[in-house]
Amino acid sequence: MDRVSFFKGHGLGNDYLALRLAGLPFSLTPPAVRLLCDRHRGVGSDGVLALVPGDGAEFGVRIFNPDGSEAEKSGNGLRIFAAYLLEHGVVRVGTPFTVETPGGVVTLRILGVDDEGVLDVEAEMGTASFRSAAVGMTGPDRDTDGEVLELPAGDRMDVIAVSLGNPHCVVFEDEVDEVDLRRRAPQISSHPSFPNGTNVQFARVAGPGAVEAWVWERGAGETLASGSSACAVAAAAVRRGLVAEREVEVRMPGGTLHVTVREDWGLILRGPVEGAYHGELSRGMVRRLAELSWR
């Protein structure tokens, strides 16, 4: 079987594999994606980015979570995808380009590359919506600010749900207890109010223009950083008047991303990404992935 090359990069420790879908000798079925993302038996990553033709955009991408499900949008994934396209010489530093995702078309621009090869990438992530129908919540369409969720363990959570083309549920708290968050986050992510699941962010205001956030991604679990989650947290903080500025620093365990929340709720995400390596799947791995294409 043909060997398959791939690119691996990360944004603040949130890592993805990128490859071209056309010509793959296997299909990206959920079992195949799970093997690719397995950190012991596969390559290891927080997801897979597959280059596909764009419909109304210069490029298209399918975004796979490590559990094999597909995501509508990923801020870190898109910025890593920009690094992948630059490596292949199909985009240039300073020139905007468009990428179609299942969650909408995103405009990306690589602002610069430093001496160590770290890219500074900006992404126009779309418009935040706080309507339950946009987020995919059950019940009549309504504003989600102040929504109360009751968890199976009995906790009652005051949340604000946000859609960027993918769903988010933000919880603001005065203190961040990671052990307790790991208990509650999966219950929120799979809550019946979100039939398709949701990404979860616990956040704490750290200053007039800064928020600390801890992220649990649908289909991935706890992650060091998330671009779309940073956007959701920033938008929710501005909506509730918890920050005095629309230029918001979102500090996550993996590092800081910068989000601009426009007056029309358009969101601009900016932060670093770094290519880690180029690789090639062995013939044995390709064979196993091809076998999993039928499952």
Word description of this protein:
By secondary structure, this protein is of the alpha+beta class. It has six helices and 17 strands. Helix 1 runs antiparallel to helix 6. The longest helix has 13 residues. The model has no long low-confidence stretch (mean pLDDT 96).
Layout of helices and strands:
Elements (H helix, E strand, L loop, with lengths): L3 E8 L2 E7 L9 H8 L10 E5 L6 E6 L5 E2 L3 H13 L9 E5 L2 E10 L4 E10 L4 H4 L11 E4 L5 E8 L3 E6 L5 H12 L9 E9 L2 E8 L3 E3 L3 H13 L7 E6 L2 E7 L4 E16 L1 H10 L3
Parallel strand pairs: 2-3, 4-6, 11-12, 13-15
Antiparallel strand pairs: 1-2, 1-17, 3-4, 4-5, 6-7, 7-8, 8-17, 9-10, 10-11, 12-13, 13-14, 15-16, 16-17
In short:
With about 300 residues, the chain is α+β, with helices and mostly antiparallel strands.
- CATH architecture term of the largest domain: Roll
Low-confidence runs of at least 5 consecutive residues: none
The shape, in one word, is globular
Distance between the termini: 19 Å
What is the gyration radius calculated from CA atoms? 19 Å
Helix content: 10-25%
Number of helices: 6
Can you list the strand order of the major beta sheet? 1-2-3-4-6-7-8-17
Q: In percent terms, what proportion of residues is strand? A: 35-45%
